[in-house]
Sequence to fold (650 residues):
Amino acid sequence: MKILIIEDEKALSDSVVEYLTTEGNLCEVVYNFSEAVEKIELYEYDCAIVDINLPDGSGLEIIKKIKENQISLGIIIISGRGSLENRIEGLEIGADHYLTKPFHLAELNAHLKSINRRINFSGHNEIDSNEIKILPDEHRAFVCDKELKLTKKEYDLLLFFISNKNRVITKISLAEYLWGDFMDTADSFDFIYTHIKNLRKKLLKLGCADYIQTIYGVGYKFDLTIG
Amino acid sequence: MKLLTKTSLNFLSITLFIFLFGIVAFYFLLRGQVNQNINLDLEKRKASIIKQLNASDTENRIPPNPNERIIIDLITGDNKIPDVIYTDTLIFDVAQHRYIPFRKLGFITTHNNQRIYIRIFKSLEESDLLIVRIFLMLTVLFIALIVTLLIMNRITLKQSWKIFYNTINNLSNYNVNKHEQFALQESEIKEFEDLNRVIQTMTDRINADYINLKEFTENASHEIQNPLAIINSKMELLLQSGDLSENHYKAVVDAYEASNRISRLNKTLILLAKIENRQFPESEEVNIKLIIDNQLELLEDIIDSKSIITKNNIEKDFSVMMNPYLAEILFMNLIKNAIRHNVDKGQIIINQTENTIEVSNTGPVQNMNSEDLFKRFRKFSNSSESLGLGLSIVKKISEVYDFHIFYEYNNMHRFFIKFNDLK
Fold:
């Protein structure tokens, strides 16, 4: 996937690039408005990650320009401003997701994956990871072609794990992905554990390998290399 | 007390005081004057009596006028009687069956080598009547004067204080957050013009300070998000690298969680500031039952994890005029609070009586002050993850809409919100 990252904080864009390139993505970074405009006029991308506050312009303008040329391009806004109006404004002009800084790289990655699926497999798409198969359009999951009966939260959890497979996922990023940032994280840790326990039980029952690894004190890892 | 009433009362009490003293003094002056006149009269009669006595040796002639009675006594021996004496006396009038005041002049004269003591009288009835009439007229005149002065005073004061009340009215409607031009009525009176000028410069300064402060806090809190994002992303990357020792892992996770807390704190404080600045102006009819049901559904996981039973007894069509987003935040925080301080297998009951909503929970008894409860960063649980801002958000929203919020402990922890703007 070809990704354009428009973010003036170099340290932050470096982190994003490092996290995303290990997935086999191709990342390009620009640090200001004018460079960004130049790039989107010259090249084609699958997705753009746009910061709203740039030193020489607004990210919203860039999104408008992108939408004029490449309608299908996926857009994720990353912004320090997280108020309701800001979100609505961003989503109204055509962004797919709005992440408030500070965001979790795992969450960004999960959103990128869903954009990737929308763009590249429009209509029919499925995610295959070893014996697990997911049909995201139908919200269904299978293990060895046997259907897995999951609650909505368990399904979201599985999708998030597979989007960030073989990576360490912190409890906080899991909680914020599943419940949004209105939930105080300490409260949610207990029932994250419950949901994960149930998901693991269901996976094992259908003969799936035990991919969900607990990393004590940190979080979890969906380790597909185990099987 | 209004200034007008105060000055009128002052005016009235001073004039009454002067009037009372004046009238007493005036009475004595008038009395003295009248007495002097009567004395003169009596003096004349004395002279004529003496003349008559000297002119004839005939026996005493009693004057025909009963008011001008004379009593003549012969003095035997050394009776110590002063030569001339004026006194006031009462004499019983047989015809009228009452005492009538008289002025008496007693004097001694000699007639045929015999000393006689003569007393002549003059009735004071007419002059007393005159004095009373003068006083009555004077009082009426005085009261009329005071009343007209009072009315004139009120009218002119009202007229000149109009500007002042206009200024007060403008000031009480003044809101820094309204972004309106603050203008005061012009006045011809120098004092009021000065006052208005001072107020105008003051509000201008407040406005400027307010905008500065707002910009500063907004910028500061948004600029904090950038470095926080960098910290968080670097921590996440660090956690991905497999070559960390267990100690390092723990350190990274602790730092990661702490920076997450800062960002949550920052977001909540921004929200609080926004509520405080009344930046959620749009209001609409919000169905409270629906809002609470939604929040209970959103928080279902956490409610289930503690096996808490919830009851929402709000009437179906109960709605309140407010910002829908703030309504969500309000009840989310109340319910979250009820969950956090609840026991496992506890209860959360949401009741409604008229326009008051009660959110109660079966948390353990805690020794807490209901005033402190709504203060920022006041924590009554040892959960270090709790920010201690939930109830102060509730309080802030209530303040914005003039809702009355209060807490009671009665078997359960009960939080009440009394809505006043009901349709």
Observations:
- Residues 3-141 of chain B form one domain.
